[in-house]
Amino acid sequence: MKIGQVIREIRESHKATLEEIALAADTNASNLSRIERGTQGYSPETLERIATALGVTVSELHRRMETSVQSADKSGACVVGHKPVELDLALTSTKYSALTPDHRELVDEFMTLLLRRQRVKKT
To answer: Which range marks the domain in which residue 11 is found?
Structure first.
């Protein structure tokens, strides 16, 4: 498995779009798409920004790439692991940071409303 495939796998596991990750990584969606498909190279800085946008380190990208190669099953398909909850929080934080202050305020209000509704349903 190539690193672009690992990037796509992580992005899709987070249900994030190319545009969302590209925005957080300060690149554009077409570049990210080409990196994922392996038709475009990338600088170490770009890879670092993509990894950060995905909520992982560059080392983690490489580790997953190596693990996928080692854990290929007999049919040649790669075994995909489950994503840890921490990655979801990191991606959410990245998305939140990309919002304008007004939109952050809306997200905060929405979260407060959801927590209130959750408490009401538990009782």
So the answer is: 3-122
Tell me how many domains the chain contains. 1
pLDDT score, position 72: 52
CATH number, domain of 60, equals 1.10.260.40
Average pLDDT over residues 84-103: 69
Residue 90 CB-half CA count within 13 A = 16
As a three-state string, the secondary structure of the chain is CCHHHHHHHHHHHCCCCHHHHHHHCCCCHHHHHHHHHCCCCCCHHHHHHHHHHHCCCHHHHHHHHHHHHHCCCCCCCCCCCCCCHHHHHHHHHHHHHCCCHHHHHHHHHHHHHHHHHHHHHHC
Q: What average pLDDT does the chain have?
A: 81
pLDDT at 4: 94
Mean pLDDT in residue range 5-15: 93
